[in-house]
Amino acid sequence: MKTKLTILLIALLTLGNSYSQNTGSNSLSIEEPKVEYHKNPEGLDVPKPRFSWILNGEGRSRSQSSYQIIVASSMKLLDSQADVWDSGKVNTNHSNQIEFDGIPLVSDSKYYWKAKVWDESGNASEWSAPAHWSMGLLKFSNWKGLFIGHDVGYNKTDKYDSLYLPPARYLRKSFTLNKKIKKATAYTTALGLYELRLNGNKVGDANFLPGWTDYNERLYYQTFDITESLQDGENVIGAVIADGWYAGYIGYALLVRLDKVREFYGVNPSFMGQVHLEYQDGSSEIIASDRSWKSKEGAIREADIIMGETYDARLENSGWDGPNYDDTDWKTPKVYTYPNGQLQTHPGTLVKNTERLIPINITEPEPGTYVFDLGKNIAGIASLKVQGPKGTRVQLRFGEILKRDGNIQTENLRKARATDTYILKGGGVENWQPKFTYHGFQYVEVTGYPGKPTSDAITGLVLSSIETDASTFSASNPMNNTLFKNIKTTQSANFFEIPTDCPQRDERLGWTGDAQTYMRSATYNADVAAFMTKFLVDLDDAQRWYGAYPNFAPFPYSRPNQYAPAWMDAGIIIPYNMYKVYNDTRVLEYMYAGMEKFMQFQEDASTDYLRPGGGNNWGDWLAVNEETSHDFVGASFYGYDAKLMAEMAEALGRTEDATKYRSLFNNIKKAFAQKYILNSGNTSEDTQTTYALALYFDLYPDDLAKKGAARLAEKIKKNGFKFSTGFLGTKHVMLALSKYGYNDISYKIFQQTEYPSWGYSVENGSTSIWERWNSYTKDDAENSDINAKMNSFSHYAFGSVAEWMFQHAVGIDTEDAGYRNIIIKPAISKEMNYINGSYKSINGTVSSAWNWKGNKLIMNVEIPVNTTAKVYIPTAKISDIKEGNKSISKIPSIKILESKEKETILEIGSGAYSFSAKVVM
Ligand code: BGC
After folding, report:
1. Is the pTM of this model over 0.85?
2. Average pLDDT for residues 490-500, to the nearest whole number?
């Protein structure tokens, strides 16, 4: 009996062992098949779309040794005949950025695909679930539609002192289906904003279509599969169009009285589109926007992104977007031209409703003025529910904070009117939400409401181009967890078609300095690959003719000198991070000529390798108490650009360029050190920011770097573990301190609650990241009025600490491009009891957690299939490191790479690990 049990036990153990060593019993599975970063995208226009997937599998050290992709022109053929592409078995561990290489893809066609992989032992997986994509209209000659709109006249107003807000335009076309449909696709766009309607419903779930571009260069269109929404007999397709970025107010133009305050790209919005009908009998038909459509005004009386929307329900053309509607009083649309740009598919992610917020409180600071608190500071709109007499006007205004008297603060909105008005038609419950405006707010002020509103009168609809679902973070200090939540809320609020500086005031521009400083943080919190690909098109389009990248992109204003050090460098830093995080070299190719031109611009502007401050220079914008010279900022970012250019050139196989930029970097480094680094190791300017930038950008002479880091640490200590930095210095202080081992100090700053610090805003009740360190204080609510001209409560720039939180506190980074060789190097310190975090990389989720049990450090690490990681454990004594109660040297999926002073480096294969180590700190 005993021996039988032993045999059984041994058998089970061997089975367990073989399971984890993969002799082939469990194959990998393929998840999240994507094309061009999207799940089943419609209307792609790249000739060679790129495939990606994530792998799952039990056990450790699992990887892909080969893949096969099959593409077919129908679902049926996918199982029998790869008529478009069969990659064959390709021996590689690549599971993303895999280029399509089949027969040429055809306009207006749908493709089906699946993939299969072989694991490290050669075992084949099941085929992935079938996925698909479609190609859009690839040739200009495929387009048949005219740009149509509706003449609403033009009310000339005084440009600066009164607003011109024309009504939205409605367009409709009725058509009849007498034959059975096989496939129906709508290709649509607008100069302005549009919402597509079909048989009474909105088509798709995106807003702010077709997106913002430099309309002189390009216009994006959308592709909708509408097969399922058509019916026998009469169908109606329609569009509501409004000014949007094309013709409406943009940014601060009104505030600073630019020549133009609206209509930067055109005056009248227009719609263009076509429906492709493929019948089951093999015939086909195109219904394109033309003079046979009908046009009219309707209930939307005003519609402007920053000014707000006015809806008069009494003027509704009820049933206009469905069949059986009498449109005899509708007009023939006006035809417009679009002479300049190209028509392309939107490469990014579209604005969608990502969350619904129920009010947490309603107050009545004045009789009849109701203030709804939605609990957090978002970008989006309020949906209104109301019942009352016809003609009642309900007005909604929006604020990020309350004044002492309980009213909303709107001074910081500057020229953004941000007011929505709804006029009731009467006769029952009415529900309304605007289509073409959005606001940055936590509070909604409702006036004119008939009776006392209940909490369902207002619902907050969060709008964003991204889902911030790629990261989790938790620390033993709860303040830091609130900070993390606030960072995500603010990223979501500002990743709105472009990365905006803020969502509330008359600005909402793609400020490049903010975007570059936050770029890496952005990648941790969300999959921003497609979103940033789109922004890089904007940036490339907006590059100044002399080579500088502008202050913001798109760049609608006609001002020549709009560039600034650390802002224009977005043109280098953002592409670099796209490469580093997503292993995306295609975007580097796209940007390369422009980046080279920018490097030349910098070289021309430099004297002896030092780029001066030039341009509009904000230096370390919004720094407190210390000022870093603009020349220092210019010179240091030039060095950083050269360093990143060398790496990018290398990635593209441009070896000569790589050598050129490496030597440029060395020259800049030398010149920089001569001018700014003293023999003591101090910088000549001795501000926190100067140390942070020079150390992080590797501009310190090797023999002085440690001294520089020590000086930075000492300065921070002397300053009570508080910053004196602005947009540029802040995150780099954290990164530089951790780079040189001063983790304790980083954690002290991270947990600081005195001004200026992140904790200060959390303690003051923030739900978002503020523009200024002192945007608001509880004791001095008026403070927010003092800075009202420039005081946003939703500015992600200072949220750039997320980069440090993930790279250092949690300790997740990538050694190569694209997280195949991961680095797990948490900044362990006694200043924190635990940190716990995860990041969903392009290869799958990486997690890292550490906590103290007395002097024992527990580290839990998990890395996805098809990756390896170097894990840094802060002790040199290998025998003190255990997994469970096993010595790590006995575990096959762990390799000890190096053990040196206070540190052991392990290499692990995929899977979950729990280490414990005696650590003396
Ligand atoms: C924006 C900033 C931007 C800055 C340039 C501001 O108005 O809100 O975030 O970077 O201008 O100094």
Report:
1. yes
2. 98
